[in-house]
Amino acid sequence: MMIVDAEDAIVGRLATDVAKLLLNGETVNVVNAEKGVLSGEPSKTIEKYKNRRNQKDKANPTHSPYLSRRPDLLVKRIIRGMLPFKSPRGMIAFKKLKVYMGVPPTLSLTKKEKLGFKKKDALHSRYITVADLCSRLGYDG
Length: 141
Description:
Blueprint: E1 2-5, H1 11-23, E2 28-31, E3 37-39, H2 42-53, H3 71-80, H4 88-95, E4 97-99, E5 127-129, H5 130-137
Helix pairs in contact: 1-3
């Protein structure tokens, strides 16, 4: 079992590394999901996610894409996008993923991995944290 700390990590880079670990058969727990960052102009990022949440299938609204407002579920969905989710291999890999806001007490004593992905300090552009994005989308937790 591997514990990955998402604090100050670029979420897309983190998602690719976690997806590779999952496809190799590892069980991965991602902690501090709300402290990850999304690179780019914050106003454009917020607008993109708001538009994505408003997409509806007119014929059958229950078949519309779903994007959560909760930070841990949003990061989990981003990681799912990096997996071949509709194949059996991807489904098995996705079931081995757990994403948490903060650090749960059961995982607080174990060592957290800092994978080799880029940190927010290496960015030369603006960014928004996952927690801030979710609060702008309407999450009040």
